[in-house]
Amino acid sequence: MDVAVFSTKPYDRRFLDAAVAGRHALTYIDARLDPTTAILAGKAQVVCAFVNDAVDTAALDVFAQLGVRLVVLRSAGFNNVDLAAAKRQGILVARVPAYSPEAVSEHAVALMLSLDRHIHRAYARVRDGNFALDGLLGFNLHGRTVGIVGTGRIGLGVARIMLGFGCKVLGYDVEPSPACEAMGVVYRPLQDLLATSDIISLHCPLTRETRHLIDAAAIGVMKRGVMLINTSRGAIIDTKAVAAGLKEGRIGHLGLDVYEEEEELFFEDKSDAVIRDDVFERLLMFSNVLVTGHQGFFTVEAMTAIAETTASNIDAFERTGRPVHEVL
Ligand code: NAD
């Protein structure tokens, strides 16, 4: 099949070329997908898209005119796709439902450990010949309460690690997981979890219900000095409310791998550019904030699994007219 791969980086080529092994003709497109770049799909029957590609009504209209029949996402989340518009146009959508959830779970824990022990600050200090410990005081994770919002695949992985550290782990989910309960996760209503956790880690998908789940009111019930971690999707937190919470000292540590306006920033080298996002710049002013640029998925294991599942979605579509992991 002819496949147009949007938002391609050199690492995408490496893993996709290996997984597809010449079975399909891949055209790599550097540009991010939006209504103006959708035309670059050309004669492709399949479009391959990533997290910040806008698979919206306008892009899908262009795809329908070009004859695209399938969109395969190199991601688990599909909040960037207008599913109703895809259905209207008769374009199928597929994703990679699970590709090494441990990659993201471990990254969430990396953010927790780095923030708690100020590793990002210690790294810079020691390189500068400053060995003073003032300002680097941390706390033991052992005995602390960790609240996990969304106890699916990634949330379960975080729970497993934090239980290993000797933490008490609370969970909130619209569908509690028996596997988590069996491990020792205690389910609580969201408000209780927010009010009693020392660390809150977000692992629910971005939906209409979860958009700005963490807003000023939610921050208002949290413990003073709470650590908030978001490796899920940026818009689950209201960034302005979180910045205010940091300023007031309500939020003691903030670890983000995702940001609600990340489309304009992440995955690109902007080191020579002026970043014109005041909210983002403000966050970076706080020494108790650690931001990574959506790299939770970026391990060899996860990239291999993403590429292989994407290839299997295209293979199955070619054979049967349906991808393996269709988003319905
Ligand atoms: P999953 O589907 O296995 O788990 C999501 C869980 O959230 C489910 O148990 C579901 O019941 C729960 N949920 C749904 N709505 C909820 C709500 N309103 N309140 C509370 N819980 C709710 O998904 P996963 O594989 O664990 O991934 C979770 C999210 O992580 C994805 O949706 C994606 O946005 C994000 N993600 C980020 C990266 C990264 O690189 N940072 C990589 C992969 C996934």
From TrEMBL:
Record bears the keyword Oxidoreductase: yes
Cross-referenced InterPro entries: D-isomer_2_OHA_DH_cat_dom (IPR006139), D-isomer_DH_CS (IPR029753), D-isomer_DH_CS1 (IPR029752), D-isomer_DH_NAD-bd (IPR006140), D-LDH-like (IPR058205), NAD(P)-bd_dom_sf (IPR036291)
All copies of domain D-isomer specific 2-hydroxyacid dehydrogenase NAD-binding, residue ranges: 109-296
Sequence intervals crossing the membrane: none
One Pfam family it belongs to: 2-Hacid_dh
Keywords: NAD, Oxidoreductase
Residue span, D-isomer specific 2-hydroxyacid dehydrogenase catalytic domain: 3-327
Domain of life: Bacteria
An example molecular function term from Gene Ontology annotations: D-lactate dehydrogenase (NAD+) activity
Record family assignment: Belongs to the D-isomer specific 2-hydroxyacid dehydrogenase family.
Protein name (record): D-lactate dehydrogenase
Organism per entry: Methylobacterium bullatum
Record gene name: ldhA
